[in-house]
């Protein structure tokens, strides 16, 4: 009779050890979430992106029809129509729906309420060896960055905010080693003496050529900053240097035609909105104003970023190669 038969408790203990070991390997020691151990190679990704683009192009045609209905030109459209006859049934946000389908897992990363961001394909970067995230505008709220770090193995986050001195308290010691903070201002022009830099200048400082996720919340400066960044890329035909953009838009004082032109610039550069939500926290404390703040999440459909194309084979992590060999 074996020792396991004579002592059933040994069998239970052995089983618990095996299960516990498998769990630790699956989670990679990160509490709360199991990391994906394989970089997903998705043969249907290109076709899903192409189908989503067809849907989005139809949305652009519908936008033009809506402008003609209530305009008939963009200059005739009120951002928020007044409360009077004929009470047109729209606001500015109805012209810009998130009509592009995220081709991956879609989830809100970070805390519920203020702080979380709708993200497309977090699993695509969970094991990416050179995962780079930039977060501009922090205000001591870093639940998005904290969860992203906890759910990835290699991602590093560069944070910039000239109004604070560090990331928020959500960043734990376990992941702090993969964060980098500077009290810099992101803008459309450089003024180093004022700690003001363009995105490309920050990337040069850090030795980066590509950002996987760019989060921007800079209190209406997004219009000037992104215009200065994006226009040269449109002119040259180069893809933008980031794969995904989480952006809070502050519409304070903008005319519809002005906002439309800026938004169409984003579209010309390859940015497609896949999710939005109004900032109702701001609205709750500014009840006499319109819903002028909205969060938008964009995917970049130009180039070969990780969200629209599979990585080169040589970037496959060693554990993914081992897994594939064992399952063949």
From TrEMBL:
<keyword id="KW-0472">Membrane</keyword>
<keyword id="KW-1133">Transmembrane helix</keyword>
<keyword id="KW-0812">Transmembrane</keyword>
<feature type="transmembrane region" description="Helical">
    <location>
        <begin position="12"/>
        <end position="35"/>
    </location>
</feature>
<protein>
    <recommendedName>
        <fullName>Methyltransferase domain-containing protein</fullName>
    </recommendedName>
</protein>
<dbReference type="InterPro" id="IPR025714">
    <property type="entry name" value="Methyltranfer_dom"/>
</dbReference>
<dbReference type="Pfam" id="PF13383">
    <property type="entry name" value="Methyltransf_22"/>
</dbReference>
<feature type="domain" description="Methyltransferase">
    <location>
        <begin position="92"/>
        <end position="282"/>
    </location>
</feature>
<dbReference type="InterPro" id="IPR026913">
    <property type="entry name" value="METTL24"/>
</dbReference>
